[in-house]
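Recall that a protein's primary structure is simply its ordered list of amino acids. Everything else, from secondary elements to tertiary packing, is in principle encoded there. The following example makes that idea concrete.
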Amino acid sequence: MASPRPLDPPHRQALGLRLCLRANRWGARRVVGALFRMVSRLGDGVFWYVLMAVLSVFGGERGLRATVEMAATGLLALTLYRLLKHWTQRPRPFRSVDGIVAHVPPLDEFSFPSGHTLQAVSFSLIACAWFPMLTPLLLVFTLLVAASRIVLGLHYPSDVLAASAIGLVLGSGALVLGSMLGLGL
């Protein structure tokens, strides 16, 4: 059995592998797997594009500003996570850990960081700052997206945690920069 690239200390690797195996087995259940496949598919971009369109059309000037911040952050996040994936080249769990199965095909080759989670966290942070009433929906969806990446065998917990931290930094940075440029809240 191969182990993940050592981005984590050994004690965290062992915990992360146990979590991956348990979550992945849970994802093999019919209803659970179907739910997380659907969430993951929506997290591919569909959910976020629809949200940006709805905010742009129905959110007035605030919706347009939120959408601009989300779109700019999305482009930066995409560039950053692709660079990190190329630099770390960490194999996905289903490729390197016996017993883990990919319940959906991955969108790219490497694991670190989770692009789905990075986008979900940064987009949710921005959207919730502009439209706080969306917080319950976006918080639940973002948590489901993050969990789906582990359950489906595509990411280690550390990939998701790192992506969450990066997403928080990018989303917060976009809000601060937007405010400094007179576009923000």
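The chain has seven helices and no strands. The mean pLDDT is 89.
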